[in-house]
Write a structure and sequence with these properties.
Elements lengths: L5 H11 L10 E6 L3 H8 L7 E4 L8 E5 L4 H10 L3 E6 L2 H8 L20 H14 L4 E8 L5 E8 L6 E5 L8 H15 L3 H8 L2 E5 L4 H9 L10 E2 L3 E2 L34 H12 L4 E9 L3 E4 L11 H19 L4 E4 H4 L7 H9 L3 E7 L14 H21 L9
Parallel strand pairs: 7-8, 7-11, 11-14, 12-13
Antiparallel strand pairs: 1-3, 1-4, 2-3, 5-6, 6-8, 9-10, 12-14
Helix pairs in contact: 6-13, 10-13
């Protein structure tokens, strides 16, 4: 069998030298493991320089694997020798990157954002400041944390009246998932501008703590260096950089679905809260933990609505309530465009993953309503969802959040205002 980690090495060298990474002729294959041995074979590939778009989880669940031109022969040997079923899902990754984000800045009004293209961190932060100036009685710009490269993790608090129960929303903890900051900002705009009576009712009976980009350093790097970068940017050794910021939280840290290898995309860090991003964010979130009863995180892709926990398949805490709320939520999401989601806890529904932000909030702060969206799509575009899907994604998410909080209210949440 011929293995070649050249693809990984080339990407690492490019990211270390600030050369923009090209994914020309990189392919994504969808592989279906039917035995535990096949599943283990696929799981071992990350250590051999392959990059998962959708990682191995269980027998019978698809795995999306990106393969460089140099790795192609070894990959074909692998699937043949192990009897793996597969199909080519993305013919050329760079083509998707080139087509993903047509920029139309000429039609943008100063200070406004727009949702027909993906935006840089600077544009998003400028817009948050614009909102603070435009709605000074409702919007306050807040600093939630800091980054290794010295940036602020900036968000807003939106409040229409005093003593509303709170909701915390995060996006962009995985840098390459551009649809998540886009969806979070779309929803934020709807809270402030929508005339829909259901959206107005939702907006005005809550305080909102909204952070579109939890990983600013990584997000900037996806625009300037490597479109498919996932982690933060702190160096670990001479070549490896960054930590998976959604594996670094101090709740069941390193209890599965995370790596101790610094170059791995799921590297959990040297210890829980080893990164300034997660440490400072946790301090801020903890300081307002008595002010919100719901925490919503946005990721992509797979079309899932997940709830805790990621370290175990046991049905813990208020599992049944969250499952019922999740079911009503995804039903509402599907009505506008027919987009189908699946709901369930992280470990059962997608894969084991420990040290996640949502699990830390649930397990540490005991926040009762906690969900993570894995947004569009099912794999045709993966992380490279075209910008023309931002608005449809945002619309169906707004529909779903109206249903989510309606169902939570029907179940008596929040139990007391502000908790």
């Amino acid at each position: 069998m011929k293995w070649n980690a050249f693809g990984l090495i080339a990407v690492l060298v490019a990211t270390a030298t600030a050369e923009k990474v090209s994914y020309q002729d990189f392919k994504v294959f969808r592989v279906l493991p039917k035995t535990t041995q096949q599943l283990q074979t696929l799981s071992d590939l990350e250590n051999l320089g392959y990059s998962f778009w959708l990682g191995p989880s269980k027998v019978g669940a698809n795995v999306d694997l990106m393969v460089s031109p140099e790795q192609l022969e070894g990959f074909q040997d692998l699937v043949k020798e192990n009897g793996l079923e597969y199909e080519e899902y993305v013919q050329d990754v760079q083509t998707l990157i080139d087509q993903e984000n047509p920029r139309d800045s000429a039609n943008r009004v100063s200070g406004e954002l727009g949702w027909t293209s993906y935006h840089t961190l600077g544009e998003i932060y400028d817009w948050l400041e614009f909102l603070g100036k435009t709605y000074p009685d409702k919007v306050t710009v807040v600093k939630g944390g800091s980054t290794y490269e010295g940036r602020e993790i900036k968000g807003v608090r939106v409040s229409f009246k005093e003593n509303n129960p709170g909701v915390f929303i995060e996006g962009g903890i995985h840098a390459r998932e551009w649809i998540t900051p886009a969806t979070v900002t779309y929803f934020l705009n709807e809270l402030l501008t929508s005339k829909d009576p259901e959206v107005r009712e939702l907006a005005e009976r809550h305080d909102w703590y909204i952070f579109p980009v939890f990983n600013p350093d990584g997000y900037i790097f996806t625009h300037t260096g490597d479109r498919l970068w996932r982690k933060t940017r702190r160096p670990y050794g001479r070549i490896c950089k960054g930590v998976d910021a959604n594996r670094n939280w101090d709740y069941k840290w390193m209890m599965g679905g995370a790596s101790s290898a610094a170059c791995s995309e799921t590297f959990a860090g040297s210890s829980a809260f080893s990164e300034v991003e997660t440490q400072t964010l946790s301090e801020y979130i903890g300081s307002i933990g008595d002010k919100f009863y719901a925490y919503i995180a946005f990721h992509s892709y797979s079309q899932l609505l997940l709830f805790p926990y990621g370290h175990t398949k046991q049905h813990l805490d208020n599992y049944d309530e969250l499952y019922e709320i999740g079911t009503k939520t995804i039903q509402a999401l599907s009505k506008r465009y027919g987009t189908r989601y699946v709901t369930g806890n992280i470990a059962e529904t997608i894969y084991i993953a420990s040290g996640c932000s949502m699990d830390w909030v649930k397990g540490t702060l005991r926040t009762p309503i906690t969900f993570t969206y894995e947004l569009r799509d099912k794999g045709r575009y993966g992380f490279l969802l075209p910008a023309n899907q931002i608005i449809p994604t945002g619309q169906e998410v707004v529909d779903s959040l109206v249903a989510l909080f309606r169902e939570a209210k029907a179940k008596g949440y929040p139990k007391t205002a502000g908790n």
